[in-house]
């Protein structure tokens, strides 16, 4: 599909005077339908705009900017308007993933605040993770059965990159509360629905944990539904902040080192940003709870054999001062408290064969700027393991997410697998460009045919 643009001036038949959209009166561009607008007429206009976009690649007014941007992202990700969501987590995998997810701790709150509203209004309460995978879908039984026909069910992947514009997927994509009305949905089979969702953040780190969503009929296009889910999300964040941390003597520290050059170490309300060298040391010590000798740590960290043990001891002394007393022991060097690293989470899920859960936990390459020999080996081993699992799984949505991530933009193996699983024009064009670049870099030229 060609690059899309918003039309500078609407055609006269795009905005009939009878519905008077009154864009100047809109105070919140994230609300789908302003008070007084005719929902039936708006649906007709949006369906025509959707057809224009899917056929010509342009977004006519009055499509909201948030929706237009989402349609463009959906098209670039290779989502088709006649696609459907895929169910990727089932049975034991789903149960295990939900049990360890941070939002499991606030599900009772979600049910208390939204359960009755969803059941009485024939709506659905849905909660997704930070990658758009639905973890819980609850509410009116008849509505659940109807939603099940489009795979709006627990374990299904509703990321924007997988099924296009939808409230939970778009909310985590843009990190904003958002409402999606009827034909604003990118996939046609979802267009009879309206939904509103708001992201939920970790109160300690600020990272997106997922989103809470209310899904149902056109009545949810009212501004109050967006304010409602936003208030519920804020209540959940406050509840997470109030949950008592574990006592320091039994607390588990969490080490986040994927997708960043400087790792973060958190426990309870304490959060430490580590230098690059200290990040490398913590990654290695977390991986070896039994400890490492000075010589082992020296070889793991430094390519230059001329680096002396004195240099390493100085780094460890500085790290000990940052962590506080009693957390870093010596002879051998080891951590005295449990440390759960995001690297270990990905490795466990990969070993268990839960590829979707492993990819969900993978925030990017391990300490990408590090040149420490042991870290480089671990970085490559983790990425290679995930890549092999993705290629073997042949799931087009998982492959597309990897290919469109910064670390996958030039991953030829994944692009070839994606082209086989989802051979859209955009994917084939990108694969051809990568293969051309590889050929040029290798200095390869096609040999001339032998004369006859």
TrEMBL record:
- Signal peptide annotation: none
Q: Where is the OmpR/PhoB-type domain?
A: 269-335
Which Pfam family is one of this chain's hits? GAF
- Superkingdom field: Bacteria
Q: Which GO terms describe its biological process?
A: phosphorelay signal transduction system; regulation of DNA-templated transcription
Record keywords, A-Z: DNA-binding, Transcription, Transcription regulation
| Entry's Gene Ontology molecular function annotations | DNA binding
Q: Which Gene3D superfamilies match?
A: 3.30.450.40, Winged helix-like DNA-binding domain superfamily/Winged helix DNA-binding domain
Q: Which InterPro entries does the annotation name?
A: GAF, GAF-like_dom_sf, OmpR/PhoB-type_DNA-bd, WH-like_DNA-bd_sf
Q: Would the keyword Transcription regulation turn up in this protein's UniProt record?
A: yes
Protein known as = Transcriptional regulator
Q: What is the lineage of its organism?
A: Bacteria, Bacillati, Actinomycetota, Actinomycetes, Kitasatosporales
């Amino acid at each position: 599909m060609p690059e899309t643009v918003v039309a500078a001036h609407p055609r006269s038949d795009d905005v009939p005077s009878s519905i008077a959209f009154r864009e100047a009166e809109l105070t919140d561009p994230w609300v789908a339908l302003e008070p007084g607008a005719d929902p039936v007429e708006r649906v007709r206009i949006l369906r025509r705009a959707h057809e224009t976009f899917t056929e010509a690649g342009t977004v006519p007014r009055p499509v909201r900017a948030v929706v237009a941007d989402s349609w463009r992202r959906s098209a670039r990700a290779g989502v088709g308007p006649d696609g459907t969501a895929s169910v990727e987590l089932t049975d034991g995998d789903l149960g295990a993933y939900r049990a360890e997810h941070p939002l499991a701790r606030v599900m009772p709150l979600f049910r208390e605040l939204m359960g009755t509203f969803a059941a009485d209004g024939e709506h659905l309460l849905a909660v997704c993770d930070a990658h758009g995978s639905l973890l819980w879908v609850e509410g009116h039984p008849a509505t659940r059965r109807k939603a099940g026909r489009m795979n709006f069910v627990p374990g299904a992947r509703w990321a924007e990159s997988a099924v296009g514009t939808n409230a939970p997927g778009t909310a985590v994509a843009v990190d904003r509360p958002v409402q999606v009305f009827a034909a604003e949905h990118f996939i046609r089979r979802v267009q009879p629905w309206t939904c509103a969702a708001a992201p939920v953040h970790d109160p300690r780190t600020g990272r997106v944990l997922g989103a809470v969503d209310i899904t149902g009929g056109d009545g949810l296009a009212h501004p109050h539904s967006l304010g409602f889910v936003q208030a519920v999300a804020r209540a959940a964040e406050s509840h997470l902040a109030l949950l008592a941390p574990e006592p320091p003597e039994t607390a588990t520290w969490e080490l986040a080192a994927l997708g960043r050059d400087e790792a973060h170490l958190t426990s309870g309300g304490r959060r430490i940003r580590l230098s690059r060298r200290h990040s490398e040391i913590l990654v290695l010590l977390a991986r070896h709870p039994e400890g490492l000798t000075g010589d082992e740590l020296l070889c793991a960290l430094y390519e230059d054999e001329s680096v002396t043990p004195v240099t390493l001891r100085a780094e460890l002394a500085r790290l000990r001062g940052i962590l506080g007393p009693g957390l870093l022991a010596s002879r051998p060097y080891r951590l005295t408290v449990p440390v759960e690293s995001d690297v270990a989470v990905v490795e466990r899920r990969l070993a268990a064969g839960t590829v979707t859960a492993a990819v969900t936990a993978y925030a990017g390459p391990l300490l990408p700027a590090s040149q420490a020999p042991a870290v480089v080996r671990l970085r490559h081993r983790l990425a290679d393991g995930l890549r092999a699992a993705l290629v073997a799984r042949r799931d087009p949505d998982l492959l597309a997410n990897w290919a469109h991530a910064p670390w996958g933009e030039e991953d030829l193996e994944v692009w070839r697998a994606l082209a086989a699983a989802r051979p859209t024009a955009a994917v084939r064009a990108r694969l051809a460009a990568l293969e051309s670049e590889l050929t040029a870099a290798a200095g390869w030229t096609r040999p001339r045919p032998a004369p006859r």
